Structures are given as structure tokens and as C-alpha cells.
Amino acid sequence: GQGFKIALIDNAPGDIIVIDPILGDGIGFAGAASESYFPKIEASYLWKHGDLGGTHFFGGFANQKYYVNQLDAADVVTNTFSKTSVSWTFGIGGEYNFGPMFVKPQLSYYVNGASGGWLGGAIANAAGLDTSGGIEQGPIILGTELIDANSFMGMLALGFSPTEQLTLELGGGFLYNNEKDETDIKDHTYFEAYLNAVWTMAPGVFLVPEAGFRDFGELKIDVPGTPDSDLGSLWYFGAKWQINF
Asked: Cα dihedral sign for 23, 26, 32, 37?
């Protein structure tokens, strides 16, 4: 129902990426332990608009401390230090009904969203680039300094119910990681779109087929002679049975 909600959540810090301060390449690290001194805070407020639907506002804050052992090419520890990462997010979304149709928009902004657990993390390869299919890199350690990873996300879903037993939904979204002036990694955009159907075969019995497309985008590298890194794309199709007892 309408109202304010707040949650205190056990905080599990995300991975970090270590970047060489001269070459910009990923360098090794070992024993990158982490801890948090207080729970992650998440809050939301739902403003209902009668039969039209509702608008929700949300935000979160988290804090993690990382202990990093930097390694050289021979895997020898050359430096040990700690850095504290502050993560936060805020956004607005909603669900609005127009007879048999509905619209679900959402916009959100993140600082170190992967570290705060709100975005999928990424793992660097030897060139400091994402190879895991993760949608955000962060936080980044440049030399011994922590660089914030800033991201902006937008999503939109459109639905239509031609009958009480069938609902069709078409949706898409993007996540943009903006320019990081202190590193050679400049920007990256992830995009996804899907189409699914919910068929109510009997009370409490559902069949949900879905098809979609994911474009992991290109990672822009601001180094002369270094091309952008194409992270690939994929199509998928699947279906599930669901029975509610």
C-alpha cells in the first residue's frame, strides 16, 4: 500500500578493479578483503493515484572498506593499503494503468552501484576490461586512489491484456557508465530488450514464454592506437511453468 518503507540490509561488498596508474592496465591484487561498519540502508515511498496506479521513489546508501595487496609482474606484494568506498543511488519509477494497457517507466542514478550491490559487478582481464558480461565496473583503484564509477539507468515496459487470461509485455532498458577522467576507460552502454507473455491456463497456473536481446556494447578506451572493445551481444528464448498454491 501507499507509504514509506526503510530497510537495513547485511552488506556484502562487491569486487574491485585495480588499474595501473601509468599504463592503465589491470594489475594483480591478492587478499582484497573487505568489511562494512554498518548495514546498507534502502528506503522507498509509494504514492498511489487511485485506479491509475502509483509512483515510487527510492534510494540507498552503503559504505565499504577494502584492504588491497598490490602485486607486481612476479606476483610479489609491492604495496598494501586500504580505501573506503561510498555507494549511493536514487530513482523514480511507476506503474500506470489505462484500461487493458499499462506502462512501467523507471529512471535511476548510481555511484559505485556494483559495490553497493544494486548493479551486476564486473571482473577485469589483463587489460583492465570487462570480460564477465557485468554491466558496471567499480569501484576502481587507480594506483592507491579510489575512483568512483557513476552510472545512469533507464527502463520502460509496455503491457496489454487482450483477455483476462493473457498479458503481453514489451520492455527495454539501458545502463550508461559515464566517462572516468582519471582512467583510460571512458564510457560504456549496455542495452536489453524483451517480449514475454503470461498465459493463465487455470487459476494459479501460468505459462510464461519470453524472447529477448542483450547488447553488452563497446567499451570506449581513450588510448592512441587502442580500438574500442566490443563486448558482444546475444539473443535468448525461454519459457517457464508456474503454479501458485
From this structure: positive
Name residue, grid cell 587489460. 127
Q: What is the C-alpha to C-alpha distance for residues 109 and 205, in angstroms, rounded to an integer?
A: 37
Q: Among candidates 155, 222, 140, 152, which has minimal Cα distance to 189?
A: 152
Q: Give bridge partners of residue 205 from the DSSP assignment.
A: 202, 243
Q: What is the DSSP string of 53-99?
A: EEEEEEEEEEEEEEEEEEE-TTS-EEEEEEEEEEEEEEEEEEEEEET
Question: What's phi and psi for 51, nearest 5 deg?
Answer: -70, -15
State the chain's mean pLDDT as an integer: 79
Helix (H, G, I), strand (E, B) or coil at 50: helix
Coil/strand/helix, residue 142: strand
Cα distance between residue 75 and residue 59, in whole Å:
40
3-state secondary structure of 15: coil
Express each pLDDT in 185-218 by its tens digit: 666 788 999 999 999 999 989 999 999 999 888 7
Q: Pairing state of beta strands 17-19 and 140-142?
A: parallel
DSSP three-state, residue 51: helix
The model's pTM is 0.77
DSSP state of 221: B
| Residue whose entry in the numeric block shows the C-alpha cell 549511493 | 88
Distance in angstroms (rounded) separating the CA atoms of residues 111 and 114: 9
